[in-house]
Design brief:
four-stranded antiparallel sheet, single chain, three-stranded antiparallel sheet, 7 strands, 16% strand, 3 helices
């Protein structure tokens, strides 16, 4: 009888430990959330996020909720159209169009002549890795140009 109680107690304790460890909340301001390529939809245009060189992700710093986008242009217009109150504090991730790694969109450098999913044309580069023979702009200038295009 004692062995049976011990087994039950061990089983319940194990379940509780598994449940608690599964509830660990990730900080997507330090690393992006997982994107389910070809299944997750762009928050703005509702197209499948499939182009791994131009994807972007926005994280609400208050809730930790991640929003996926197929083009950095969609991020900028989504902020404007939805009047996102936490826009200035948002963590924005973007794929480096050469290496494919996630980088901070606000510190990235952007080339202006790329073929992107929604046609905004901005390809992100980790600072110091951008091509020297192409027009390169910073986040604020890219943002201005997207708002000017405004589609």
């Amino acid at each position: 009888m004692k062995m049976r109680k011990f087994s039950s107690w061990l089983f319940i304790t194990s379940l509780l430990l598994i449940a608690i460890s599964g509830c660990e909340k990730k900080d997507f301001t330090k690393e992006p959330a997982i994107v389910h390529w070809d299944r997750d939809m762009c928050e703005r245009c509702k197209m499948a996020v499939s182009e791994r060189k131009y994807a972007a992700q926005v994280v609400n710093p208050k809730t930790g909720k991640a929003y996926n986008f197929d083009d950095i242009g969609c991020v900028i217009l989504w902020f404007k159209e939805e009047n996102i109150p936490w826009q200035k504090d948002a963590k924005i991730w973007v794929k480096d169009c050469k290496s494919g790694e996630w980088i901070d969109a606000k510190s990235a450098k952007y080339t202006t002549d790329n073929i992107t999913p929604m046609g905004y044309g901005f390809g992100a580069h980790k600072p110091g890795t951008e091509p020297k023979n192409k027009e390169t702009i910073d986040f604020e200038e890219m943002k201005k140009r997207v708002l000017k295009i405004g589609r």
